[in-house]
Write a structure and sequence with these properties.
261 residues; SH3 type barrels; Alpha-Beta Plaits; five-stranded antiparallel β-sheet; three-stranded antiparallel β-sheet; 8 helices
Length: 261
């Protein structure tokens, strides 16, 4: 850092006789380049610290945003001062025009504070599968202002952090275990006790099904079209529930086909 500042001062002296505008542009470019280098070095050191101390990826991403924005703001202030612009006057002007910019600033602050609450509460982290406002996906980034989730069809959704403070959301992977449910409608003449036993035996053969709690069948409704039941099994891989539900459905279809023969 000291070497970079010395280089800037030396260049500043050398450019003393050159057109002030060109001089300011050159110095601004050097400051921006220095800021970019400092950000990359800080990210590199942060990644090394992460591997050494096994830090959560969510914390790392938030810290990266804080470091990045802080360095860029400082660089912008140095550039403005180099150009002879009084930063304190700008801050005062923003204070006078606070009514005009207040709403935008309030939203940014709300997103930042919500991000800190997400970090502190640990309600979800990078890698979790969540759903908010009927949008479901895997959390790929928790940032300074926004959270990014990727849907099963590979669409990327950016959600303001403040949305998690004002809207209910579901974390499907918060716990290590999750139940896989499959709704099935059976004919009235079906022997429910026999089907329940066969279901437990067949589903228990899957490697992903936990032995406790045991797979079971729950009668939900006696409808006009048949007996509606829910077949359930537990897994310790909550992020694969959709895949396992499909596997279970295929197996149950084969089982019911054999019973009807």
């Amino acid at each position: 850092m000291i070497n970079q500042l010395s280089m800037i001062l030396a260049i500043n002296t050398a450019l003393g006789t050159i057109n002030p505008l060109i001089k300011n542009l050159v110095v601004a470019g050097i400051i921006i380049l220095g800021a970019v280098i400092i950000v990359r070095v800080a990210f590199y050191l942060l990644r090394r610290t992460t591997k050494r101390w096994d830090m959560d990826l969510t914390v790392v991403q938030v810290l990266q945003d804080i470091i990045k924005y802080s360095i860029y703001i400082i660089a912008a202030a140095i550039i403005l001062k180099q150009m002879g612009i009084d930063v304190s006057a700008i801050v005062l002007s923003l204070g006078i025009a606070g009514v005009a910019v207040g709403f935008g600033a309030r939203e940014v602050i709300a997103n930042f504070i919500s991000g800190l609450f997400i970090l502190g509460d640990k309600s979800f982290k990078v890698g979790d599968t969540i759903e908010i406002s009927n949008k479901k996906g895997k959390v790929t980034k928790v940032g300074f202002r926004t959270t990014t989730i990727t849907t099963p069809n590979n669409s990327v959704i950016t959600v303001p952090n403040s949305a998690f403070s004002s809207n209910p959301y579901i974390n499907y992977t918060y716990t290590d275990r999750r139940r896989v449910d499959l709704n099935v409608t059976l004919p009235y003449e079906t022997d429910l006790e026999k089907i329940g036993q066969i279901f437990e035996e067949e589903v228990s053969k899957f490697s992903w099904v936990l032995t406790e709690p045991k797979p079971n069948m729950l009668i939900k409704e006696l409808s006009d079209v048949g007996i509606k039941v829910t077949l359930s099994a537990w897994t310790d891989e909550p992020w694969k529930v959709a895949k396992y539900r499909t596997l279970m459905a295929k197996d149950i279809k084969k089982m019911l086909g054999k019973e009807n023969e």
